[in-house]
Amino acid sequence: MTKTIDEINEKIKSGKVVVLTAEEIISYVEENGIKKTASDIDVVTTATFSPMCSSGAFINFGHSDPPIKMSKVWLNDVPAYAGIAAVDAYIGATELSETEGMNYGGAYVIEDLIAGKNIKLRATAYGTDCYPRKEINTYINKDTINQAYLFNPRNVYQNYSVATNSSPKTIYTYMGKLLPHFGNATYSSAGQLSPMLNDPYYRTIGIGTKIFLGGTVGFVAWQGTQHNPETERLPNGVPVGGAGTLALIGDLKQMSTKFIKAATFTGYGITMFVGVGIPIPVIDSEMVEYLKVKDEDIYATVYDYSVQRRNKPSYGRVSYKELRSGKITIHKREVPTGSISSYLKAREIAHILKDQIKNGTFTLTQPVANLPTEGTVKALDIVSEEEL
Amino acid sequence: MVTEKLMLIFPPNIVKKPVVYRIVKDFDLEFNILRAEITSDLEGKMLLEIKGSKERINECKSYLVKEGVELEEAAKGIILDKDKCVNCGICISLCLGKAFYLKDNYEVNFDQNKCILCGLCLNCCPVKAIKSKI
Ligand code: SF4
Ligand code: SF4
Predict the structure, then answer these.
(1) pLDDT tens digits for A93-143?
(2) Dmax of chain B from CA atoms?
(3) Residues of chain B with CATH 3.30.70.260
């Protein structure tokens, strides 16, 4: 039994489509088997709501009179990158405020823009014959600017590490506050609900795939940076560490602060919770084999974040079932676990997307091109020009 | 019989006085020391769970105040702002008293009665949903 995207879209239009979330399909397969599930179910919705540092937005401010070719830009005192055309800028999520430090930054600017708040814009320039103005101080909001779109170079990591701390000191990391002597461990993937763990070989998720992004429609723009499909995998296709990633794009003006949330990790910096939902078409029985994945089949590797090196010592693998139980065992001791992403919110997104597909407001897309299934991540070595 | 959590703050001049011992002797209260420390400015802090009759507890509180001990209702120390919380669960992994916990539906909840005011959760929340009144 195979289905094409067009056939599934016909069912969406006629209201006959059958959709389950990636959580619901687990028991459906257990009761009905692979073959029947493949014929009964048309779409499975997956989701995640996690801090994703590699996020940001392109903004076009419009031209002032006299015009300016902005070379340095600040939004609420947070620097944005302006080394592109005259009134375009990119505000990165992790950029810190020059006046408030870690209390405010790029992600907060993005959240404030989405919320419709006014933002202070300051820009400087060297001035040219065609762009004579050298400085501008004004206010903008999402209705006064031309385009504002989120463009996140790396989101939706396919699995990720578990972080712990063996040292005698508390450490503050992008995986949260880690207490001394294995006092706790944190993890980040949505596990069985996570998009790329339900399509481990990128058979349906590809470039151009239409998704739920931050409360509106978005698209997969490209493979994400550090896309690493050759990570070691279990027989079920699940990678045991960070593997595939996605670059995402979507209209910031249509997003909601319910699904985009600025965050500060004390001692580390600013990041942004991004809500993503990806529909996976049940094109054949093989797809069901992947979609039935559950927390106990997904493993992640525990790393010691107190070792300040690229390669950190590992304490072996644990399953998401163990992680979600609230404790894991490291070196024979019980270590309490906590998630840095919200499973509750991921579940909410999976249900919203399911409802949108069922009521015909969200149709599926065929990828325009596939994501690479080969390739690894390179390291940055410190070398002289001759050595390279 | 009631159980109450109390934070006792001893100014440097009485930090060595045996006031806690009198809690048992004179007021017939059971107590459990949840936490005790001497701060860098030589102030003593002790978090007690006291069990006994409401009347005796109140008499004991008056006695402590008379001796110069400052009292704080410990139960009001930590507050979870549910509107801000994104239900991640970082706080759960750090919480010594297991006051932060995950409900069956994966919602993060806070049980003030279990909090031992260790303060570990104070700077862990990425969206500043954990506040302190300490
Ligand atoms: S760390 Fe903050 S946002 Fe996360 S669950 Fe705890 S209180 Fe909520
Ligand atoms: S102060 Fe300690 S016991 Fe109380 S909620 Fe925070 S971490 Fe838990």
Answers:
(1) 999 999 999 999 999 999 999 999 999 999 999 999 999 999 999 999 999
(2) 51
(3) 2-73
Task: Record the tokens describing residue B76, joined without a space.
Answer: 């009001």
| Predicted ipTM > 0.95 | no
Angle between helices B19-27 and B54-66 (to 10 degrees): 150
Q: Specify whether the CB–CB gap between A316 and A388 falls below 8 A.
A: no
Helix (H) or strand (E) holding A21: strand A19-21
SS3 A241: coil
Q: How near does any CA of chain B get to the CA of A51, in Å?
A: 9
Give the pLDDT confidence of A129-187 residue by residue, as tens digits.
999 999 999 999 999 999 999 999 999 999 999 999 999 999 999 999 999 999 999 99
- B19 inside 8 A of chain A by CB: no
Give the residue from A264, A341, A342, A345 with the most B CB atoms within 10 Å of its CB, the best one to mutate: A342
Residues of chain B with C-beta less than 8 angstroms from the C-beta of A266: 123-124
Chain A to chain B Cβ contacts (< 8 Å): 74
**Domain B78-132 belongs in CATH node 3.40.220.10:** no
C-alpha dihedral over B81, A321, A358, A36, to 10 degrees? -170
Q: Where in chain B is the domain with CATH 3.30.70.20?
A: 78-132
B63 three-state secondary structure: helix
Are A186 and B90 an interchain contact pair (Cβ–Cβ within 8 Å)? yes
Cα-based distances in Å from B61 to A263, A268, B2, B29: 42, 43, 14, 11
CATH superfamily of this structure's domain B2-73: ACT domain (3.30.70.260)
| Residue type (1 letter), B5 | K
The rounded Cα B16 to chain-centroid distance in angstroms is: 21
The ligand with the least distance to the CA atom of A177 is 1
Could you give the CA distance from residue A287 to residue A265 in angstroms, rounded to a whole number? 37
* pTM exceeds cut of 0.80: yes
The letter for the amino acid at A55 is: S
Nearest atom of ligand 2 to the alpha carbon of B98: 8
User: Rounded to 10 degrees, what is the CA torsion of A380, A272, A242, A301?
Assistant: 110
Question: In angstroms, what CA-CA distances link A212 with A48, A278, A362, A371?
Answer: 10, 6, 9, 19
